[in-house]
Amino acid sequence: YIAELQLTDDRGRLLKTADDFRAYIREQLEMEADTQFKREFQTKAIEQLRTIAEYKGDLPEAFRGRIYDYYHDEIQQEADVSGMTIEEVCEAYNIDLDNIADTYTKDMLLLATIANQEGLTVDEAGARQYLEEQYAANPDYFAMMGMTSSEEYTAMVDIRAAQESLLLNNVLDLLQEKIKIVEVEPTEEDLEAAPEEDMEMQTEDLND
């Protein structure tokens, strides 16, 4: 029955049996869980770094400007879709573009400092190779976006921005490798301090 459905995985390979289909679903769920964990870890890592270090110098205008323009363009797309102005979108969602640009720039400078201390680098060739691998992993998706070759895709991407993004991801990966995550059972004091609604949820879980 599975073969009759002509289902394929992300690489276009036919899923011929129920075992193939189950293995594919399991792989997708594991990838999704890993991605979610990594995203949450990176957010927490940056929040923690903010508590122990702060960039107090003048922000490089060119770098900050690129970040501001990036988020400005993102909001412009939302405005175009919703028939609103950028100002209306920012007011509706309580968005402060200047604050976002300042905060993100400081975060990136902090991570760049760590990259420099750890000797991490990403050259232009490395960035181009990464983009080519992205295209090769899902050419059908890029074709739907009007890009029929990896050359077209890389030509549309700001290589310098790609280098920066890859470098910062490498820093966060390094932090994830070096930071030991320990699961801690809540103490009686923690449970006593928990809000009543949390206690109710914990009780329901025990009953289940």
Number of strands: 0
Series of H and E elements: HHHHHHHHHH
Low-confidence stretches: 195-208
Distance between termini?
Answer: 36 Å
Q: State the major sheet.
A: none
Shape: globular
Would you tell me the structural class of the helices and strands? mainly alpha
Radius of gyration: 23 Å
Percent strand: under 5%
Q: Count the helices. How many?
A: 10
Please state the average pLDDT score.
76
What percent of the residues sit in helical stretches (DSSP H or I)?
Answer: over 70%
Q: How would you describe this protein?
A:
It is built from 10 helices and no strands. With 208 residues, it is mainly α. It starts with 17 loop residues before the first helix and ends with a helix. Mean pLDDT is 76; it is low at 195-208.
